[in-house]
Amino acid sequence: MSTLLLLIIYLIFISLGLPDSLIASSWPAMSQSLEISPAFQGILTFIISLCTIISSFLTVKLVKLLKTKGVILVSILLTCIGLICISYSPNFILIVLSAIPLGLGAGAIDSALNNYVALNYKAIHLNWLHAFWGVGASISPFICGAFLTDLNGWRNGALCLAIIQSCIWLICVISIKVWNKAELQFEKRDEENGNKTKEINTSFIETFKLRGVFPALIGFFCYIAIEQTTANWFSSMVVFEMGVAENTAANWASLFYIGIMVGRLIAGVVSLKVNDKNLIRIGEGIILIGLIFMCMQFNVYLMPAGLVLIGLGCAPVYPAIIHSTPTRFGAEHSQAVMSIQMGFAYIANVSFAPLFGVVGRFTSFLILPYVILVVLVLLVVCNELVNKLTSKPIEKATN
């Protein structure tokens, strides 16, 4: 049953990535058909991110109330509702309102499902599951693009994504018995291994008091800052500062995501022999090598090589941090910590990368690898500090 459930979870991770590219890939057509400024995309993205942060922070209460499977069912249903409403919205205000359930659904499922897999499955699956998220995020633009034969085609694209999400939701509803049986297997396994999780009601404020949480959150923020800033501003650097053609830069930018996807497939296999702590260190080292390449700005053709290496380095870091959360902070606290970690991830999404864009416009986008290098150093320091602070017995982890 646990194997069948894992296959369903892989499918859910694909569904997690599907809505993520909708706005970005369809916005030019959306803004024209609604006769609004292209700059309004920032408002929509902010609303989605804000709702995602809120639902991430509320995940502990939601899991306690609905259990993980309940949170997943409600979250996918919310994304379905959001996508359907977007497809039928006649104006921008209603699209903004439709984005609320889209964001609320994304945050809770991300936090709850990541914690569930971290507790019950090996690290190989977290790496591969996040690679499957990339599959969903990658095919979404192609689905939307297939409908963009006219300015209103984005509506059919959103509706198509809603239909796919609805089918996945129905599969999850039908598989409730699979979840129940698998959970019984996990409970029996934990009891036999003496790992039965204690029921501890860790509040939002109390979670911050756990030893090592602050550097863990800063480290998680730093990782997302590295990933998103590199992904969002690499093309601007090579186009505006190095004279690379826009289509060439776009092709190079795709190498970053390919590096992450391939890297996670490889990291999954490596995780069978290497623990989370060392996987994070290996990833940080590969990112550093990629940044060295990207700092050699006298040769533009070193830029895509550096970008691929940064993608490969990023690949194991995110899943390894997530998978190590129960080990670092105890299974009884992992959902509380995971919720705040995911919230900080989305905060990084809406803060650091946009801030770099402002700085880059007023200075030069060539500072990108140097800024990322500073953030990488902070990431390494935070991860090593967490390792040191959480190496002591879990029982003494609170003050």
List keywords for this structure.
mainly alpha; Growth Hormone, Chain: A; 2 domains; globular; disordered C terminus
Can you walk through the features of this model?
- It is a single chain.
- The protein is mostly helical and 399 residues long.
- It folds into two domains: 2-192, MFS general substrate transporter like domains (Growth Hormone, Chain: A); 204-390, Growth Hormone, Chain: A (Up-down Bundle), CATH 1.20.1250.20.
- It contains 15 helices and no strands.
- Helix 5 packs across helix 14, helix 11 runs parallel beside helix 13 (302-329) and helix 13 runs antiparallel to helix 14 (331-362).
- It is globular and about 60 Å long.
- The model is unreliable at 393-399 (pLDDT under 50).
Poorly predicted ranges (pLDDT <50, ≥5 residues)? 393-399
CATH hierarchy class name of the largest domain: Mainly Alpha
Q: Average pLDDT across residues?
A: 88
N-to-C series of helices and strands: HHHHHHHHHHHHHHH
Amount of beta strand: under 5%
Q: What is the count of distinct domains?
A: 2
CATH topology of the largest domain: the name is Growth Hormone, Chain: A
CATH superfamily of the largest domain: MFS general substrate transporter like domains
Helix content: over 70%
CATH 2nd-level architecture of the largest domain: Up-down Bundle
Amino-to-carboxy terminus distance? 40 Å
Characterize the overall form. Answer: globular
Question: What structural class results from the helix and strand content?
Answer: mainly alpha
Overall strand count:
0
Helix count from the secondary structure assignment: 15
